[in-house]
Write a structure and sequence with these properties.
Two copies of one chain form a homodimer. The first copy, chain A, is mainly α and 342 residues long. In chain A, 72% of the residues lie in helices and 1% in strands. Chain A has a two-stranded antiparallel ribbon with strand order 1-2. In chain A, helix 14 (255-263) crosses helix 17 (299-316) and helix 15 crosses helix 16 (284-296). Chain A is globular and about 60 Å long. In chain A, 53% of the residues are buried.
Amino acid sequence: MATTSPLSNPHISVPDKPNPAALVNPVQEELKLVEELLRSVAQVNYAFLADILEAIISAGGKRLRPTVLLLSARFYKYDIPHLVPVGAAIELLHTASLVHDDTIDDSLLRRGKPTLNSILSNGATVLTGDYLFAHAASLSTRSENIRAVRLFADSLVTIMDGELAQIASGRNPERARENYYARIYAKTASLFEAACRIGAVVGLAPEQGVERLGRYGRQMGMAFQVIDDILDFQSNTADLGKPVGNDLRHGTVTLPAMYFMDEARSDDERQLVRSVIEGKVDNDEQVNHAVKLIKESNALELAYRQARLFANEAKEALADFPNNENRQALEAIADFAVERDR
Amino acid sequence: MATTSPLSNPHISVPDKPNPAALVNPVQEELKLVEELLRSVAQVNYAFLADILEAIISAGGKRLRPTVLLLSARFYKYDIPHLVPVGAAIELLHTASLVHDDTIDDSLLRRGKPTLNSILSNGATVLTGDYLFAHAASLSTRSENIRAVRLFADSLVTIMDGELAQIASGRNPERARENYYARIYAKTASLFEAACRIGAVVGLAPEQGVERLGRYGRQMGMAFQVIDDILDFQSNTADLGKPVGNDLRHGTVTLPAMYFMDEARSDDERQLVRSVIEGKVDNDEQVNHAVKLIKESNALELAYRQARLFANEAKEALADFPNNENRQALEAIADFAVERDR
């Protein structure tokens, strides 16, 4: 079987690639205000840090979390002064956790650029992340809504619990596969879920609306992370900012590796992937071979199908909302989560 | 002049050493509940972390921050279910910032015990601190009071800004002395101020009460940190868990060093201390000599007098409160802040 990208696989019917401009349209103006607020957090009196914060915050890119937060609120009472700060807060929380993650993983590259961690001392990196967490916490209170703040705080607890679980499960393929979905929920989907719930709560949505938008965010976030886990096998360093097969190298069991081990053509191939995960094999040639085996199998395609299922569930969660530009933007984001190539 | 401890200096009139048992008496039962809640945060499913968290949380000792929070609330509406979680939250916030500080300073000892940082990888230390921050944030929302949560978040911003300022001012004695009081406010007094304000706010105190208790907390915290800076010159490793003169070694200019440079008997002595601060002299013998010069000067006594002034201002801030066991306990804590020997 030739190397195949799920994104170009003719056997899978996928929607047209969404137009990124359409994604943010309904909340474009509010996102500019979020952006201004994010920049203001970077404007500190200390030149060495101002440059670094500016770079970290600019690197953020798509602002998906504030976007889904604003879109969720927009079905209800759309109170800009309470929403814009929480939009900025959720992006800062995400950014802070990436900064600390790079310390935790000891990564040297992220999004194709050197991590803070590779430029600054560990101490300065920790402090920078803490600075961003502190501002996220402070901005979240500008919602004037204690439930919204609690959703923030509790999603941070979920993220941290997930990171501890990941450390605790170590390089154990069985334990890792048992909790794969729990892990990607904690790592990614929980914050998308929180973003949507927070938007709904600040918009004073009825409980059913909070639940449905939360479900949208959760399933969209699951799709998003499964695709991240596929891209880890596909992208080159320039695209994703990490070496291909980075997860496997670190012993992180993701859905493609799980499917591969279920469906491998031979015990030898299965054993090789297992040994890489367990850290028993770490020479580059063998690791690269394991990555190649997974890429050339149908594992990425199977994982892609799972991501598509999650995205469809996300869209189904919106079924009872009016079919307006808001809902269409959220649907487009769910499609984007699976169709993106970086 | 012989080595003198301000605590035993016959020329300074100090109140009787407060009885620690008297300090916490009025809120003793509630502190037990705070303690239980703190322990529950340590009870995680991952054995490696549970032991570490238990050790970190046990090491905390005096629980001064929850104590002043509870005492501040006790002048007003004393609503235990809303207060106990914020008491635990403020202690966790403090603990989390110590865990990260040890990474930032690369310290190997704290309170006489190895820091987390010297046992675990940097990554695991960062994660442990983040876990504690996350739980602090979550517990703070159980106040059901958005203003209380904002006080938490904003004090975290102040603490982080202060740490950045400290890094930015580097080993520059002039800049460091200009902002000494701002630094110790950010580092220590701001959290004591927040603790008292939060207690008052959750107790639904009138604005004047919030301000007065905030002032008490701030001035008491200033006293507390000046004494910490004195103890850094006096204690031995077993008492304080750090080598004597640790601040000076790290180029951190504190009040005793400032007084010494103002009043040094000779330019040579002044220049030696300056060179240690600037990092131009780092051989142990010369650093120890600089520490000894400061200890043998009147600098510690002058610094102690300043701490006493702060503690007196803290007590004065309570003048309009009824002279009950609550107020007496807060007064005793202000005295303890300056009379403690570790």
